[in-house]
Structures are given as structure tokens and as C-alpha cells.
Specification:
The chain folds into three domains: 3-241, 4-Layer Sandwich (Glutamine Phosphoribosylpyrophosphate, subunit 1, domain 1), CATH 3.60.20.10; 251-444, Rossmann fold; 453-601, 3-Layer(aba) Sandwich (Rossmann fold). The longest helix is centred in the C-terminal third of the chain and has 20 residues, at 408-427. By secondary structure, it is α/β, with parallel strands linked by helices. A hairpin with a 5-residue loop joins β5 (88-89) and β6. The protein binds 5-amino-5-deoxy-1-O-phosphono-D-mannitol. 5-amino-5-deoxy-1-O-phosphono-D-mannitol (M6R) binds next to α10 and α18.
Length: 614
């Protein structure tokens, strides 16, 4: 979490830094700050609140400097406040630093510095780091880069940092371990970002710093990249960005979340592109082909992820077992990494992550790699850490997802996983050709069917009006739609702050049924499939206790329609593909309820899009 931006070159730095921060606000938005180098001094602007508040404050002053660093924060150490906002100055006032990550041994470092007479204005671990660097620099009488390197060897934790000395503002030192950092290469200027969005309009050439690397970034010199532990020089690989500016703007929607919900048909076509060849009866996924023998003979697939990506992993569990008949286990990254799990060489670990930066998922795959397993990454953000760490993988190609609540990334993940399950089923000899072709054909028309679901928007908005004041909600589903119940509940709680729980419908009678009364909305995911009759009974059970039922059903449904308070229809499709349709009304319901409650759906409180700390 936290976003960092840096600029060095001939332009005015402030607008570049502030616009960059606004694009990184998805990474944290409780406070922000900018350090500009002007007239031989460091000018600092820091404010609690959104970047706009800091910008308005700064614009009352001189902001003419042509290099600087900036930060948007998601608090870890110390509450959101002006003092705790980055950038942080060292005691001498000569060094200024922004940091994304956590310094785990900050307390012992703080004690060392307090003993040396250092003082601290904030409660952050970052202020300790900048002072540690000052201390090392003074002890060693060395240039900044060496001091950064030596100081970082004493640090335990994760970081992406930018730091400069007020006497050499045209030379920004950056370093990375565990948090992302990318450098944009312009002509006589350079850009730094937690991702590339802050400088998309200026350059498409980027270098992703790898873990354990640091670099000196100046406007005109070539990048000097070195390993932190040995100071050995390394070559940075230049990547060409394919993202464009339009894809990270709102395009007329009030919120990114709504834009992204509406982008789902297009995003899924992009996920299919070049891979799903329904006319030819083929799926082509290069990452899978490369390791097809390993996949064919794998004893087990372990899927690890967090949050919404974990829900798509649960959907995949049903699909892989159904189509490929391979045992699947689904693991939260955070549990897996600390559990001493049994990982065998013939296991395949699939890591799913929109951002490709989630700390727990990343740690889980590092552990799996050490154990000798093949790691396959499914990420949305090109060049992200998980995508680079994995042996092989498949991008979801959903395009940038800015809203904190994941929507199009989720359906694109399920699309990739469905194609993988089908392909695995084929290579493991589980289908007849005609079955396989029929599945491919039906998958190829899913985007059109999502468009049909989106046409129910007015009905969904009307239903949302009736439940916007609920304090609790229950989501029920069965089979492959049980994870969709979990996802519906997560969407509602994270953006509207209504307490919501997802359950396998049959589990309701083992506890949650006690909660049902006339004030409890129960969202039932009930397409017409193998579990339908059982779901009809579950709906009756809720109605018998005066609960309100809002059901997602297949077009033409009559039985649940007669019992439920509201129904939202999806087009008919194969059971395995229903999650791609049933989740859409639940996304829209959460969106409308949150907007009606006055919540900022793109930036829900306490959350960040990219969770790069554990
Ligand atoms: O980037 P990732 O997919 O690894 O992120 C995982 C979760 O943090 C994420 O899905 C989170 O739960 C979303 N806010 C859900 O909408």
C-alpha cells in the first residue's frame, strides 16, 4: 500500500507529482505529501486527507521546483495526520524520503537513534529510516547512495523508497525490496512510480526495479542500478508499456467502479483474445502449453490468493475438479505462508492477484518455489511482481482496475481459470471433442450475456433503494455459486459498510437462520441448475421467517419468482459458467446501495487497492 512518485527533469515537477499521486490514490488515500527542491531548499507540503486537499494547500505557495518526490499514504505506523504523512525529513533537514512498505525492526533502530540524540516528529517507521540513513552517512562520511545501501542492510521489512539530498536534488536514490517500484525513462527526464500510471503520458519505456536493487535516478545520466547487498552493477531490462491514458480515466462514469462493471463484456473479450478459438474448437494459452506435461501429470493444484481473487480461486476449484478431475486446494496466501504446508514437487501452485503485488500471495509463491513446485501466476497488472516471480502464467488483460472494489478483474480471472480448466480437461482426456467444443462455444457468448444482465440496471437500482438502510445482509449460494455469495457479501461490506455474510445455502440452517427476521435482506444466487430445487427450499425457509429475498435467477424462472420479494434474471447458460453472470447484479446492487448511502465507492474507508503489507 501507499503510492510513491518522483520526477527529475526540466519540467515543473509539482503537477506531474500531484497527478501521479491522484492516479496512485487507489494504493492509499488517508494523507499525502510532496517534497520539491526549490532555491536550494526542500519545500514540503503534507496534509491528512485526499491528494486534492494537499494540492489546494500547496497551490497557495511557490511550487515551481523541477524535481521532487511525493507520496499517498495508507497508514501502518501512526494514524493518518499531517505529521505522519510522507515525505519525511532527517534531523539535519538535508535528506527527504518517501517510503512504501513496513520497517519491521523500526523499534530497535529507533532506540539506537534515540541513544545518539535523534528526535522524531512522527510515529512512522519511515522517519526512522531517513534518520538511519543520515546517521550512516555521517558515520561513514560518504555520498548518499552508499549511506542508503549500508542503512538498508540493517533494515528488516519491505520497502520501496525514494530519497534525495537537498544539495543534490537532481539525483534521486531509489531502492526496492518487496514493494513495487518502476522508473520511466524520458529524454533528459526520469519518472518514478509505484506503478507506471503516473507518467503514462510522458514515456512508454520503463524499467521495473527488482527486489534487492537500488538505483540513482538523474535526468540525463543512464540509470545506475546496483544490488543492495553487494553493490554489484546490474543491467535493467527496458519494457515497453502497452497501457494508454484513456484506459485509466473515468470516461463519463461517476465512479471507476461503475465504469469497470460496464467494461466487463469488453474485458472478457480481451481475456479471450488469441486464446479462445471457439470456431476452431481450440484454446491456446502459451503459459499453459509451455508446461502442459507438468499440468497433465500434476497430482494436485493449490490455488492461493486473497480477497476477491480468493473467491475466483474457489470458483476455479469447482471448475478444475469438474472439467479436469484434478484435486484442488484453495488457500488464503496469509494462512498458507505461515502454516508449514506440505508442498510436493509434483504440485502446481496457481497464484491469483489483480495487482500482482499482494504481499501474502507473493510470500506464498516464494515459499512454493523454494519447495520445488511449479508456480503459475494469474495477474492483471503487466510486469507486476507476482507475474515476474511466477515460472509461467496468464495475464487477465482486463485493463487497469482503479476502483478499490474488484469487479472486472474478478470476471476476467474466472474467464482465464475457466479456459485453463477446459484445456486441462482436454489434455487430461476428460472430454469428448463435441463436449469440449460446446463448452467453448458457450463460453464465447458470455460477454453478450453479461450485456443482457447489465440491461437490468433500472430494476437493480430500484431494489437497492429498498435495502440501502439495511444493517445486515446474508448472501446464499450453492455449488459454483457459493463463492459468488461470498463475493456479493464482500462487495457490499467493503463499499457500503453494511455487515454482510456469504454462506453455502445449506449451511443456513446450521446457524445464520437465527438472524433472519423482517429486517434481514437475503440475496440468493439461484440460477436454474443442479441445485435449483434445494435453493427453492432455502428461499421458502427464509420467507417462513419473514426475511426479504432478493434472488438472482435464470430467465423464465417461475418457482422462486413466486416466493421471492424480488428477482433479477440472467440469461440461460451452462452451470459452470453461471458465476460470470450471477456476480454482475450483485456488483451493481452493492454499487447503488453504497452510492445511496453517500459512500465513496472508489475509495472505501480503511482500504487500499494494492495490499503490499501483510
Ligand atoms: O490485487 P489482488 O487481487 O491480489 O488483491 C486481493 C484483495 O486485496 C482484493 O481482491 C480485495 O479483496 C478487493 N478490495 C476486493 O474488492
Amino acid at each position: 500500500m501507499c503510492g510513491i512518485v518522483g520526477y527529475v527533469g526540466d519540467r515543473k515537477a509539482f503537477p506531474i507529482l500531484v497527478n501521479g499521486l491522484k492516479r496512485l490514490e487507489y494504493r492509499g488515500y488517508d494523507s499525502s505529501g510532496v517534497a520539491l527542491s526549490q532555491n536550494g531548499e526542500i519545500t514540503l507540503f503534507k496534509k491528512q486527507g485526499m491528494v486534492k486537499e494537499m494540492e489546494d494547500h500547496a497551490l497557495e505557495h511557490d511550487t515551481s521546483g523541477s524535481s521532487g518526490i511525493a507520496h499517498t499514504r495508507w497508514a501502518t505506523h501512526g494514524e493518518p495526520s499531517d505529521e505522519n504523512s510522507h515525505p519525511h525529513l532527517s534531523n539535519s533537514g538535508n535528506l527527504v524520503l518517501v517510503h512504501n512498505g513496513i520497517i519491521e525492526n523500526y523499534q530497535s533502530l529507533k532506540k539506537l537513534l534515540l541513544d545518539k540524540g535523534y528526535t522524531f516528529q512522527s510515529e512512522t517507521d519511515t522517519e526512522i529510516l531517513v534518520n538511519l540513513i543520515q546517521y550512516v552517512q555521517e558515520q561513514e562520511s560518504c555520498e548518499l547512495r552508499k549511506a542508503v545501501r549500508l542503512a538498508l542492510t540493517q533494515v528488516v521489512g519491505a520497502y520501496a523508497i525514494c530519497i534525495y539530498d537537498k544539495s543534490y536534488p537532481e539525483d534521486i536514490v531509489v531502492a526496492k525490496l518487496g514493494s513495487p517500484l518502476v522508473i520511466g525513462l524520458g529524454v533528459n527526464e526520469k519518472f518514478i512510480g509505484s506503478d507506471a500510471t503516473p507518467f503514462l503520458e510522458y514515456t512508454k519505456e520503463v524499467i521495473y526495479l527488482e527486489d534487492g536493487e537500488m538505483a540513482s535516478v538523474s535526468a540525463t545520466e543512464d540509470l545506475d542500478i546496483r544490488l543492495i547487498d553487494t553493490n554489484k552493477e546490474v543491467d535493467g531490462k527496458i519494457h515497453q508499456l502497452e497501457m494508454d491514458l484513456e484506459s485509466i480515466e473515468k470516461g463519463g462514469y461517476d465512479y471507476f467502479m461503475m465504469k469497470e462493471i460496464y467494461e466487463q463484456p469488453r474485458a472478457i473479450y480481451d481475456t479471450f483474445r488469441g486464446r479462445l478459438l471457439a470456431d476452431k474448437g481450440m484454446i491456446k494459452m502459451s503459459g499453459l502449453e509451455e508446461y502442459s506435461d507438468r499440468f497433465r501429470t500434476a497430482d494436485r493444484i493449490i490455488i492461493t490468493a486473497c480477497g476477491t481473487s480468493w473467491h475466483s480461486a474457489l470458483v476455479a476449484e469447482y471448475l478444475f475438479e469438474e472439467f479436469a478431475r484434478v484435486p484442488v486446494e484453495v488457500e488464503y496466501g496469509s494462512e498458507f505462508r505461515y502454516r508449514n504446508p506440505i508442498i510436493r514437487k509434483n504440485d502446481i501452485i496457481i497464484a491469483i492477484s489483480q495487482s500482482g503485488e499482494t504481499a501474502d500471495t507473493l510470500a506464498a509463491i516464494k515459499m512454493a518455489k523454494k519447495a520445488g513446485a511449479l508456480v503459475f501466476g494469474i495477474c492483471n497488472v503487466p510486469g507486476s511482481t507476482i507475474s515476474r516471480e511466477a515460472h509461467a502464467g496468464a495475464y487477465t488483460h482486463a485493463g487497469p482496475e482503479i476502483g478499490v472494489a474488484s469487479t472486472k478483474a474478478f470476471t476476467s480471472q474466472i474467464t482465464v481459470l475457466t479456459m485453463m480448466a477446459l484445456e486441462l480437461g482436454k489434455i487430461r482426456g476428460e472430454f469428448s471433442t463435441s463436449e469440449y467444443r460446446a463448452l467453448l462455444r458457450e463460453l464465447s457468448v458470455i460477454p453478450k450475456k453479461i450485456e443482457t444482465v447489465l440491461e437490468s440496471i433500472d430494476l437493480i437500482e430500484d431494489i437497492a433503494t429498498q435495502y440501502k438502510d439495511a444493517t445486515n445482509a446474508l448472501y446464499l449460494g450453492r455449488g459454483v455459486n457459493f463463492p459468488i455469495a461470498l463475493e456479493g457479501a464482500l462487495k457490499l461490506k467493503e463499499i457500503s459498510y453494511i455487515h454482510a455474510e456469504g454462506y453455502p445455502a445449506a449451511e443456513m440452517k446450521h446457524g445464520p437462520i437465527a438472524l433472519i427476521d423482517e429486517n434481514m435482506p437475503v440475496f440468493v444466487v439461484a440460477p436454474n441448475n443442479g441445485h435449483y430445487e434445494k435453493l427453492v427450499s432455502n428461499v421458502q425457509e427464509v420467507k417462513a421467517r419473514s426475511g426479504k429475498v432478493i434472488a438472482v435467477v435464470t430467465k423464465g424462472d417461475t418457482e422462486i419468482r413466486n416466493a421471492a420479494d424480488h428477482v433479477i434474471e440472467i440469461p440461460e447458460t451452462l452451470e459452470a459458467l453461471t458465476p460470470l453472470l450471477t456476480v454482475v447484479p450483485l456488483q451493481l446492487l452493492s454499487y447503488f446501495i453504497a452510492v445511496m448511502r453517500g459512500c465513496d465507492v472508489d475509495r472505501p474507508r480503511n482500504l487500499a487497492k494494492s495490499v503490499t503489507v501483510e
